[in-house]
Amino acid sequence: MTQPSVILATASYDHTIRFWEAKSGRCYRTIQYPDSHVNRLEITPDKRYLAAAGNPHIRLFDVNSSSPQPVMSYDSHTNNVMAVGFQCDGNWMYSGSEDGTVKIWDLRAPGCQREYESRAAVNTVVLHPNQTELISGDQNGNIRVWDLTANSCSCELVPEVDTAVRSLTVMWDGSLVVAANNHGTCYVWRLLRGTQTMTNFEPLHKLQAHKGYILKCLLSPEFCEPQRYLATASSDHTVRIWNVDGFTLEKTLTGHQRWVWDCVFSVDGAYLITASSDTTARLWSMSTGEDIRVYQGHHKATVCCALHDGAEPSPS
User: Fold this and answer.
1) In three state form, how does the secondary structure of 13-28 look?
2) Which parts are the WD repeats (predicted)?
3) Which long-range contacts (CB under 8 A, 24 or more apart) does 93-99 make?
4) Up-side HSE of residue 78: CA atoms within 13 Å toward CB?
5) Model pLDDT, residue 110
6) 5-42 per-position pLDDT tens digit
7) 0.90 cut: is pTM over it?
8) What value does the mean pLDDT take over residues 193-205?
9) Distance between CA atoms of 13 and 304, rounded to whole angstroms?
């Protein structure tokens, strides 16, 4: 099977994961996922595997196989896994769960390598571009930085007490971090390197982005430069695109009929894929703000999407 240069996958409450031809909108592979619903999808940097975070497992599927069976299962979480991602070379995976933990998994060895206690349901985890810090956000409103070198929590922030941090995103160069919460607010910090190796958060902006929940916030990728955008996906059925220079509203993407749960930029930032409770995923042109493709096939809420249309990392 020839490997597609663009890998696009979605998952739904209908207990399936679907792979799509991004241009044509054709679904070419469906994986049944009977164990639970899938909360999050992520593709490995080398485009070989798709991780599906469910309750309470993470399953790894071979992107280039037609086998419905996962090649690997990661099983030590005890509740919904809400976040999953990979280190840049694909050597290890991180996850965050409603069981209150953040975990690290070595992909070349079975079992969980490390565990950090957040003491509240973890909704979101991102890896700092320096590859040595994980940043998590939880249901009680805490943001924590986990220093993987020192193996400890190096920083704690509470932007708004008792307001769940729903989504976190870090700029590709490590200069900004954005946290989105259940009140439709985004908190933006500059990330400064202190005299120690520790990252310091300097408050930069507070953005009232939506009246409803923000379910996902995402900063644009490196190849989008010199434009820098923040996308916010909301329960108000829209995605808003903000210019990071001043946080002015550039565009509102309208077309979804229900909550928009997830979004992901193409590698050059020219397109955005979104996933919604209206059962569809959509491909948007960032230049026009129009949806140019609708991916239809799921028959319940589509809650997450993953896209990898970039080059594979060169072997270091």
Assistant:
1) CCCEEEEECCCCCCEE
2) 1-30, 74-108, 115-156, 207-252, 253-294
3) 93/51, 93/58, 94/125, 94/127, 94/134, 95/53, 95/58, 95/125, 96/122, 96/123, 96/124, 96/125, 96/136, 97/56, 97/121, 97/122, 98/122, 98/123, 98/139, 99/56
4) 5
5) 76
6) 899 999 999 999 999 999 999 999 999 999 999 999 99
7) yes
8) 77
9) 10
235-265 pLDDT per residue, tens = 999 999 999 999 999 999 999 999 999 999 9
Q: Is residue 211 classed exposed, middle or buried when 0-12, 13-18 and 19+ CB atoms within 10 A define those classes?
A: exposed
Q: Are 274 and 242 in contact (CB under 8 A)?
A: no
